[in-house]
Specification:
This protein has about 425 residues and is an alpha/beta fold. The protein is about 40% helix and about 15% strand. The structure holds (4S)-4,5-diaminopentanoic acid.
Length: about 425
């Protein structure tokens, strides 16, 4: 038995599915999951010493590359001064001011420990602020595993075809209105019917959890207009896109100012960290300033704070977005060329340093079209890549990511390995 397989069978004895998060079990792609020993730059090694070029990047946070020396140094220095205080530390104030300066719609920010927690708290805040109960979300968008937003979820919920409501009381699920992505008409109709009772619309401004799906031109504008018209709040879930598409996130790229923004992933540079922030009058409703309660023992954790500060400092200094975009374009175009040569139908959706390969001949613009992808083909593709030493997300309904540590040579190497993998299909 291989070391990966041996460890995984032990893992299954003590952890449900042998994992701490479902998609890591590789169930939808088959085969034993790899167990990771270490990572550096754009490479990751499993416990058997096999090397992979990493396009998972820990599901998005690793924009600087693994074990970036400046981030590691900052975390090590802080560790010697204590791991958690349960009281305010100066790094929180530094990071909060950086976030407020960089993200156009944020005046004030509250730190939490994950993206799920950020969105869950943002929805509570929207309900508390508006005194309304309905939440609008879009099919295929995933906002973490918060009860209200699991319905028609992307990510692992889509990967495993889970209805998204097991364990969620019907009364709770009924308060979520689910609409198709990229369909302004459905949105306008929903607002005509329920507008006065809608607390907020939650959206990934670029969907990353049904695979990458870009918003069509009029869609985000329509959401902004409807939420304004009915005095509902617009919540951008920028857990994936924040600091990845630009320093100001998707909202800066598209020129939209949401009322509340949720952040995570890149913000923590690989440490557990989430945040939600927005306009001052809204954020002042959060306890202890206002009546909407939300708290956390590890919130504002100093290790996460220094990792976040260092990550943002490097991004501000290096401005890697053009580089990342260009490198990602070359990789995506290279893959497309290889698939075309083999006559394999596909579509690649890409923006900045994130993209998804769908095995379909339809344009992918919502969850329905994303689901037209041949997931059996994806599973074979995934396994062939893994065997050639290329790691991508073990699910069709996720995004591939690049980091500043990927070089042109790494992309050339990756394309060589991907060619071998495609030839073997
Ligand atoms: N938050 C990730 C989806 N984009 C999934 C991470 C996981 O399920 O482990």
């Amino acid at each position: 038995m291989s070391k990966n397989a041996e460890l995984f069978s032990l893992a299954k004895r003590f952890m449900p599915g042998g994992v701490s998060s479902p998609v890591r079990a590789f169930k939808s792609v088959g085969g034993d999951p790899i167990i990771v020993e270490r990572a550096e730059g754009c490479k990751i090694w499993d416990v058997e010493g096999k090397e992979y070029i990493d396009f998972l990047c820990s599901w998005g946070p690793i924009i600087l590359g693994h074990a970036h020396p400046e981030v590691v140094q900052a975390v090590c220095e802080q560790a010697h001064k204590g791991l958690s205080y349960g009281l305010t530390n100066p790094h929180e104030i530094t990071l909060a001011s950086m976030v407020a300066n960089l993200v156009p719609s944020i005046d004030k920010v509250r730190f939490v420990s994950s993206g799920t927690e950020a969105v869950m708290s943002a929805v509570r805040l929207a309900r508390g602020y508006t005194g309304r109960k309905y939440v609008v979300k879009f099919e295929g968008c995933y906002h973490g595993h918060y009860d209200s937003l699991l319905v028609s979820g992307g990510s692992g919920v889509a990967t495993f075809g889970i209805p998204g409501t097991a364990g969620v009381p019907e009364e709770m699920a009924k308060l979520t209105l689910v609409l198709p992505y990229n369909n302004p008409h459905a949105l306008i109709e929903a607002f005509e019917k329920y507008g006065e009772d809608i607390a907020c619309v939650v959206i990934e401004p670029v969907a990353g959890n049904m695979g990458v799906v870009l918003p069509e031109e009029d869609f985000l504008k329509a959401i902004e207009e409807q939420t304004k018209k009915y005095a509902s709040l617009l919540i951008f879930d920028e857990v994936i896109t924040g600091f990845r598409l630009s320093l100001g996130g998707a909202q800066e790229l598209f020129g939209i100012r949401p009322d509340i923004t949720c952040l995570g992933k890149v913000l923590g540079g690989g440490m557990p960290l989430g945040a939600y922030g927005g306009k001052e009058d809204i954020m002042n409703k959060v306890s202890p300033e206002g009546p909407v309660y939300q708290a956390g023992t590890l919130s504002g954790n100093p290790l996460s704070m220094v990792a976040g500060i260092k990550t943002l400092e490097v991004l501000i200094r290096e401005k890697p977005y053009k580089y990342l975009e260009e490198l990602t374009r070359r990789l995506a175009e290279g893959i497309s060329e290889l698939l075309r040569e083999k006559g394999i139908p596909h579509r690649i959706n890409r923006i900045g340093s994130m993209f998804t390969v769908f095995f379909t001949d339809q344009e992918v613009k919502d969850f329905q079209s994303a689901k037209s992808s041949d997931t059996q083909m994806f599973a074979r593709f995934f396994r062939a890549l893994l065997s050639e030493g290329v790691l991508i997300p073990p699910s069709q309904f996720e995004a591939w990511f690049l980091s500043m540590a990927h070089t042109q040579k790494d992309i050339d190497d990756a394309l060589e390995r991907i060619k071998k993998a495609i030839d073997s299909l």
